[in-house]
């Protein structure tokens, strides 16, 4: 029983815990549906949520039910005091709440050898006590400090006193750009807890509150893998708001596994059995299919993307860039030594960032910065590298050109709509505009190249609406991908909303997020042979003496897995 390359789990909330304990025979019949489709390794059994603690006799009864099926049981705690989606956290300056938390942790640690904190372990409380305790600190400083103290002094200490061998896991939610605002301390907590876990829910990227792009399901696993190497327990996603596109639910599973999550947790048992039971066979299909080839993929690689701890800026832009086919490998520490580094506005929160950029360039390497970071660095020493200025003016463009040719450009293409971009000024001949967009009798840079020392700096203009990146013409996207090519020298040509995932053993995946068929081309900077990893068939190529191209058609919300080898 079980899959070869990952473990599976389902989270069981207190409501379902009560139901199972009350009528295990009825649940047995329902659970058969999940057993039919999914090879389940573990369940996380919730002991507390929303002011309700499940009675011990009931917890033991549910544990016994799953243990008799050979399914591992772990504990789960949801530290909220809300009802009906109010999202009310504990107050971590309220002594009664702290005592209650201690009792919950003690109770759960007596019952389980592993406990996961659901991603309600944050604080959004702004009561008089919190305001007074915060003092002159920012809310981010106060909250990250406070939850670090609570984690060490109450959760870890209490659980380990009761059960010295308990494995404590903190699950981080999908809203990674705002962790620090509500107390998630990504720098210190992963060192305190035994393991971390990753929320890979993307749901509907347009009609939900968060507007998270689907690439996030891959990106965030990779980021947290680099936050705590070998300590990221897995990825967790749910069924919410996925009925608009059943393929989007499958993608959450695909991308979580493409990122090499060790375990996949589905939330939650009750919804999977009733309201959203259509997703159970889909999840089972995803697990069966990916397990067949996942072991043949190496370690994920991509363009090193530096996002410092406790940083924000150009919220969630990374996932938009990933949806363009840029393979990203995000890191919480500056990746010194990498041939190419991508920096979005969030890098501004590292006070040493200008020094890192200069060191990277003077050592003969490449740096890509976005227009948001350019804006943050203007007046902070960036002018020593290049005379490029972010202005407060905007312009709507729909015609584009590339590349630089004599005093003009060589190719002109049109977008299907006007795209609003910031107007960026550059110093003629000190900087080279590789791609431009046209206003009235004037053009504005989309991609700028600057030589500094023996290195190269690129500045990428980001539209005011990040989603307009998807409306850039295919030819322009191709130029961006080619110039910002990853260290492996592989890039895509074709439309946006197609992802590229690379591994260190000459394997790769291409996934279409599009709702229609599309033509996609994989380009290599050297001559290679390309094989479909699943069928073994060799792909037809268009090789030159120094490169290779492979074109094929992608069906909606599908992926292709390939292996390539260099020609002798």
Write structural notes for this entry.
This protein has three domains: about 5-295, Glycosidases (TIM Barrel), CATH 3.20.20; about 300-485, 3-Layer(aba) Sandwich (Rossmann fold); about 505-568, no CATH class. Helices cover about 30% and strands about 30% of the residues. Helix 1 crosses helix 2 (about 25-35). The longest helix has 24 residues, at about 140-160. The mean pLDDT is about 95.
In short:
The chain is of the alpha/beta class and about 575 residues long. The chain is about 30% helix and about 30% strand. The protein has three domains: about 5-295, TIM Barrel (Alpha-Beta Barrel); about 300-485, Class I glutamine amidotransferase (GATase) domain (Rossmann fold, 3-Layer(aba) Sandwich); about 505-568, no CATH class.
Query: Tell me about the biggest sheet?
Result: 8 strands, parallel, barrel
Global morphology: globular
Q: What's the level 1 CATH class of the largest domain? A: Alpha Beta
Computed CA radius of gyration, to the nearest angstrom:
25 Å
Classified in CATH, the superfamily of the largest domain is Glycosidases
The strands making up the biggest β-sheet line up spatially as 1-2-4-5-6-7-8-9
What is the number of beta strands? 27
Structural class by sheet pairing and helices: alpha/beta
């Amino acid at each position: 029983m079980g899959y070869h390359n990952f473990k599976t789990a389902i989270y069981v909330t207190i409501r379902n815990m009560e139901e199972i304990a009350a009528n295990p025979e009825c649940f047995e019949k329902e659970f058969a549906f999940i057993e039919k489709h999914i090879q389940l390794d573990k369940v996380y059994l919730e002991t507390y949520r929303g002011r309700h603690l499940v009675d011990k006799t009931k917890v033991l009864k549910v544990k016994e039910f799953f243990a008799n099926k050979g399914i591992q049981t772990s504990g789960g705690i949801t530290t909220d005091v809300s009802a009906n989606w109010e999202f009310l956290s504990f107050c971590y300056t309220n002594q009664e709440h702290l005592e209650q938390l201690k009792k919950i942790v003690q109770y759960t640690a007596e019952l389980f050898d592993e406990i996961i904190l659901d991603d309600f372990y944050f604080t959004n409380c702004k009561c008089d006590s919190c305001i007074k305790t915060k003092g002159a600190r920012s809310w981010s400083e106060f909250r990250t400090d406070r939850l670090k103290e609570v984690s060490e002094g109450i959760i870890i200490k209490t659980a380990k006193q009761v059960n010295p061998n308990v494995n404590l896991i903190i699950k981080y939610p999908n809203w990674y750009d705002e962790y620090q605002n509500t107390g998630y301390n990504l720098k210190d907590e992963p060192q305190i807890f035994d393991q971390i876990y990753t929320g890979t829910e993307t749901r509907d990227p347009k009609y939900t509150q968060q507007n998270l792009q689907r690439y996030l399901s891959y990106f965030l696993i990779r980021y947290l893998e680099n936050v705590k190497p070998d300590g990221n327990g897995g990825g967790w996603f749910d069924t919410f708001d996925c009925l608009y596109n059943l393929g989007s639910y499958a993608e959450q599973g695909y991308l979580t596994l493409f990122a090499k999550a060790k375990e996949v947790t589905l939330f939650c048992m009750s919804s999977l059995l009733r309201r959203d039971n259509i997703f159970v066979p889909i999840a089972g299909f995803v697990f069966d299919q990916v397990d067949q080839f996942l072991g043949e993929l190496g370690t994920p690689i991509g363009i090193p993307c530096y996002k410092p701890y406790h940083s924000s800026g150009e919220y969630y832009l990374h996932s938009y860039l990933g949806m363009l086919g840029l393979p990203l490998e995000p890191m919480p520490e500056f990746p010194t030594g990498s041939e190419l580094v991508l920096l979005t506005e969030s890098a501004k929160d590292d006070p040493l960032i200008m020094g890192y950029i200069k060191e990277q360039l003077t050592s003969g390497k490449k740096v890509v910065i976005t227009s948001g970071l350019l804006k943050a660095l203007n007046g902070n020493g960036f002018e020593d590298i290049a005379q490029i200025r972010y202005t407060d003016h905007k312009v709507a463009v729909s015609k584009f050109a590339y590349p630089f040719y004599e005093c003009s450009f060589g190719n002109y293409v049109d977008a299907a709509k006007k795209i609003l971009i910031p107007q960026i000024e550059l110093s003629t001949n000190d900087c080279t505009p590789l791609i431009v967009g046209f206003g009235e009798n004037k053009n504005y840079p989309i991609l700028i190249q600057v030589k500094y020392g023996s290195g190269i700096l690129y500045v990428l203009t980001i539209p005011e609406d990040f989603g307009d990146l998807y409306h850039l013409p295919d030819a322009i996207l191709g130029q961006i991908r080619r110039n910002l090519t990853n260290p492996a020298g592989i890039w895509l040509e074709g439309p946006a909303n197609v992802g590229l995932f690379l591994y260190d053993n000459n394997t790769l995946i291409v996934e279409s997020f599009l709702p229609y068929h599309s033509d996609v081309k994989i380009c290599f900077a050297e001559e290679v042979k390309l094989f479909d990893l699943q069928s073994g068939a060799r792909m037809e190529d268009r090789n030159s003496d120094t490169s290779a191209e492979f074109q094929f058609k992608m069906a909606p919300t599908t992926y292709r897995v390939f292996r390539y080898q260099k020609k002798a």
